[in-house]
Amino acid sequence: MLVTLNEVLKHTMTKEYAVPAFNVFGYEDSKAVIAAAEELNAPVILATNKVAIAEMPIAVLGKMFTQLAEQATVPVVVHLDHGNDYETVAQALKSGYSSVMYDGSQLPFEDNVRTTQEIVKMAHAFDIPVEAEIGSVGYTDPSMGMKSTLTDVQEAKEFAERTGVDALAVAVGTLHRMEEQTADIQYDLIEKIQALVNVPLVMHGSTGIPDEDLQKIVKTNFGKVNIGTAIRMAFGKTLREEVTANPDAFDRMDLFKQPIQAVKEEAMKKIKLLNAHRYEEFISKT
Ligand code: G3H
Ligand code: ZN
């Protein structure tokens, strides 16, 4: 069923589980992620990033993802990831997205507050929750020229209060697009942030988080954990193997079978590490 971000995050403050948000790019990987969630009975978030909307119209993606979500037997959020301007967020809202992220993390603090406030006003008029970012989760490729700055605790508190965001992305030691699980998570910083900020936190760049740390962050206020590179690598690596092993194959339906299975298996692994497959058990205790 299609649900909003708030619906899946409201119980994560029990600190028993977190909901994974997977970056998906089309029909097959979205189906695989939903199949993983359904097999484990877990809520899941389908996230549309900048790479996806550079190639495909948000309106097309919105129709496809919302329909897949409506048909699913588990709660599915259709989320705009790293929306970087008002117009992109507006398109997502018009296209049925049930959650939006506005990313003003590259802007000076006051500009980030002001633009996020404008987005919150618009999205809340549609009854759609907003995630925004304070501090900057950078990228492994320095040539992208993106800032990478750990979150300042007082800024996080002020930002959350002044913007009224529903979920807050903070930078606590990850980078986007890490191919190895070597992130050094700053637990002291997480403690300080969650002592002052009372909204669910969002972890970006979570492919780089070691398995044992994924299990540990479930016990914090992180309710949404974004994973992209891990399932993209599972797809790409398996597709390369398939193409190499079957030099005469040309049919996408055949060539995609194993890669999509690999995406599903990787998604299931992350769902289990985040305890999302036990969400009903934890909800029943609240
Ligand atoms: O917003 C998306 C994520 O932060 C994904 O990061 O590709 O490094 O796992 P990742
Ligand atoms: Zn991200």
General description of the model:
This protein is an alpha/beta fold and 286 residues long. The protein has one domain (5-284): Aldolase class I (TIM Barrel). 49% of the residues lie in helices and 14% in strands. The chain contains twelve helices and eight strands. It has an eight-stranded parallel barrel with strand order 1-2-3-4-5-6-7-8, surrounded by seven helices. Helix 6 (109-125) runs parallel beside helix 7 (153-163) and helix 10 (229-245) packs antiparallel against helix 11. The longest helix is centred in the C-terminal third of the chain and has 22 residues, at 252-273. The protein is globular and about 60 Å long. The model has no long low-confidence stretch (mean pLDDT 97). The structure holds glyceraldehyde-3-phosphate and zinc ion (ZN). Glyceraldehyde-3-phosphate (G3H) binds at residues 23, 49, 81-82, 176-178, 204-207, 226-230.
| CATH level 3 topology | TIM Barrel
Instruction: Tell me the distance between the termini.
Output: 22 Å
Q: Tally of extended strands?
A: 8
* CATH class designation: Alpha Beta
**Strand neighbour order, sheet with most strands:** 1-2-3-4-5-6-7-8
Query: What are the bound molecules?
Result: glyceraldehyde-3-phosphate, zinc ion
Number of domains: 1
- How much β-strand is present in the residues? 5-15%
Q: Over the alpha carbons, how many angstroms does the gyration radius reach?
A: 18 Å
CATH architecture: Alpha-Beta Barrel
Helix proportion of residues, in percent?
40-55%
Q: Describe the main β-sheet briefly.
A: 8 strands, parallel, barrel
Give the helix/strand class: alpha/beta
Uncertain regions spanning at least 5 consecutive residues = none
Tally of DSSP helical segments: 12
Average pLDDT over all residues:
97
Shape: globular
Order of helices and strands: HEHEHHEHEHEHEHEHEHHH
